[in-house]
């Protein structure tokens, strides 16, 4: 990751790491969904002892390529030292400099952590979270701000402290022997404008010093459902469009019925929407209005999307490039024909006051009109034929 390499998608398991089978199973599910690296919690002796077993299970299942990241808080320096096989099995470590101790103890623990990474030639993400910021550093910044004639808002001071913590920690890691190209930084906040400002300031500081690190983007607590999706998408889109960010995670609070893979699908959808990479054919469909006479165009759009999801694994193997296919399912004559000209294959369903026929277009050219009760199956057959002939 980093430099001119593509944006890397990552996720994190929520299983108990001391259960190697459940953790390896979820790692595989996340990888199958598109996560290019997976982070696991390593918080206890029991969890640390099972990491080599998780790596073994992944390797035996055909996932030797999947990087496994250990997420450490409070006792990472101890676990990495006491469980050398675990330290070797992981591909990358994550440390939060705000919770490895205070004062001299903090520096000593951070040094022990980095030295293990250096000895094992492992990259490290230095992940600063505003909710667990180094309190000594924050106090220093707050006192300095209070002495100003015109003190700044607390949020501005916190943002500066978060950025300073990341850069100072990276500088110390380099002094301890960790190469610059093995350091990833993150400065996560839970409020969208704050996380944007934090990463902008971090990027500006790096640019000014000509000292660059790969950046991991994300909100520390995005929330669930629509809130989590919109908040993460808003923040990440603004930053990525500025060229800030090398790897992303959309952290979603799951509901009991939702798979963990939803956050990976969200990352893929975001990157495709921004034009970074296509993961599956894009279906453009209208939202409907008073002109659209039925729910049929909505149902057809849903069926086409479902069909793509079901077939994509097979298509990806058989038809390279099919992920760039553009499909349009439109609900009336207003935008239907025009949108069709910008798609590879399109259908314009009849709205109110229109003839009950649905013209189909291929590469913007009229093919035929469908009507009756079998439009969905006929259009999907046309779609399948188009893919077979063109990919």
Describe the structure.
The structure is a single chain. This protein is α/β, with parallel strands linked by helices and 391 residues long. The protein has two domains: 8-273, TIM Barrel, CATH 3.20.20.20; 282-390, Sulfite Reductase Hemoprotein, domain 1, CATH 3.30.413.10. Helices cover 47% and strands 16% of the residues. The protein is built from 13 helices and 13 strands. An eight-stranded parallel β-barrel has the order 1-2-3-4-5-6-7-8, surrounded by five helices. The protein has a five-stranded mixed beta sheet with strand order 9-10-11-12-13. Strand 2, helix 2 (45-60) and strand 3 (68-72) form a beta-alpha-beta unit. Helix 8 packs parallel to helix 9 (225-240). The model has no long low-confidence stretch (mean pLDDT 95).
Q: Concise description?
A:
By secondary structure, the protein is of the alpha/beta class. It is 47% helix and 16% strand.
In angstroms, what is the radius of gyration? 25 Å
Number of strands: 13
Secondary structure: helix percent: 40-55%
Sheet with most strands: 8 strands, parallel, barrel
Instruction: Give, in spatial order, the strands making up the sheet with the most strands.
Output: 1-2-3-4-5-6-7-8
Fourth-level CATH superfamily of the largest domain: Dihydropteroate synthase-like
CATH architecture of the largest domain: Alpha-Beta Barrel
β-strand amount? 15-25%
Descriptors:
five-stranded mixed beta sheet, 2 domains, 13 helices, Sulfite Reductase Hemoprotein, domain 1, 391 residues, elongated, 13 strands, TIM Barrel, alpha/beta, eight-stranded parallel beta barrel
